[in-house]
Amino acid sequence: MGNGPDTIADPVTDTEIKGLWRRAYLKAPAKVPVFEDHETQVYWFQAEGFYADLRIPARFSEGVPAASLAEFSEEELLALAEAEGFAGWAAVVDGVCTWQRAINLQGPETGRDIGRLERAPGGLFEYGVDADFVELWLDRLTDETTPQGRVFTRDGGFWGFLITSRTRFLFACDRPSRKNLARPWRSALAQALATADREDLTDLFQAEYSFGRIVNGAAVIDLSSHPNRVGALLCDDLHATHNTLATLHSRFDGKALKRQWTIAELNVFS
Q1: Under a CB-based contact definition with an 8 Å cutoff, are residues 118 and 95 in contact?
Q2: pLDDT tens for residues 127-151?
Q3: If you count Cβ atoms within 10 Å of the first and of the last residue's Cβ in the chain, which end, N or C, has fewer?
Q4: Within 13 Å, how many C-alpha atoms sit on residue 124's CB side?
């Protein structure tokens, strides 16, 4: 169990977690930390049920001036493998939030993602339930619209999660081939680099997790698991239609890629 109290008289509710949250820090263990992370750029965007989460190492937070990921050194690609991203649905019961991961950049999930939430000035504390840590989440949607979540699909189960407010978005999609999903992303990437397997490298980097601004309907990337894409457009017009979505991407070799999505019919809360 974490270090938060076992019972809270007025627990955090589902309604209170809706919003855009930036992590201020991670400390572990919670009471007497021997590890602290204040540098990783972490955003959690929570809508009604659906959420997306992106975690980018500080060295890549401003983007990298490269035309493609193929221009990255092996050392840079292995460092980029520390990035994390996942999306799915979340629910709070008696102040305890459980995040179910429908897609996960790092591959197979190990353990449960459960945290006891407490209110903090300007945000929330999250105390780990299955691990001893505390994270401070700061609210970044003051005076904004309530976030909306949509889940899209293409190619028979290739999922994309889109969370939006009036001025912000977070988009998360997994890999279409799914052949590498059974292996942890870091080890799959290390193997692909060791064998110079361009097909595997291309496949591994088809997943994309990107966060940014909405400007006149266009989605401009500010932070991404593809740091060479910072400043690029994810979508020309997020508001074109509710039931379809067209997203713009870049392959590992830098070739442009456009994906067409349709709204997914999910009954995850039944």
Answers
A1: yes
A2: 999 999 999 999 998 667 789 999 9
A3: C
A4: 25
pLDDT at 2: 43
Contacts of 139 (CB under 8 A, 6+ apart): 19, 20, 21, 122, 123, 124
User: 81 vs 107, 182, 264, CA distance in Å?
Assistant: 11, 16, 29
* Cα–Cα distance, 84 to 82 (Å, whole number): 6
User: What is the amino acid identity at position 20?
Assistant: L
* 84 within 8 A of 105, measured Cβ to Cβ: yes
Report the run of H or E that residue 190 belongs to, with start and end.
Answer: helix 185-194
The first and second tokens of residue 47, run together, are 């809508």
DSSP three-state, residue 109: coil
Mind listing the pLDDT tens digit for each residue in 66-110? 999 999 999 999 999 999 999 999 999 999 999 999 999 998 887
What are the beta bridge partners of residue 248?
A: 258
Structure tokens at 139: 């609210």
CA–CA dist 105, 80 (Å, integer)? 12
Residues 96, 223, 184: CA angle, nearest 5 degrees = 65
SS (H, E, C) 112-170: CCEEEEEEECCEEEEEECCCCCEEEEEECCCCCCCCEEEEEEECCCEEEEEEECCCEEE
Highest-pLDDT range among 51-55, 172-176, 183-187, 261-265 = 51-55
Give the strand order in the sheet containing 233-235: 233-235, 218-224, 208-215, 168-173, 158-164, 148-154, 256-263, 244-250
In the three-class reduction of DSSP (H, G, I as helix; E, B as strand; rest coil), residue 256 is classed as: strand
Length of the chain: 270
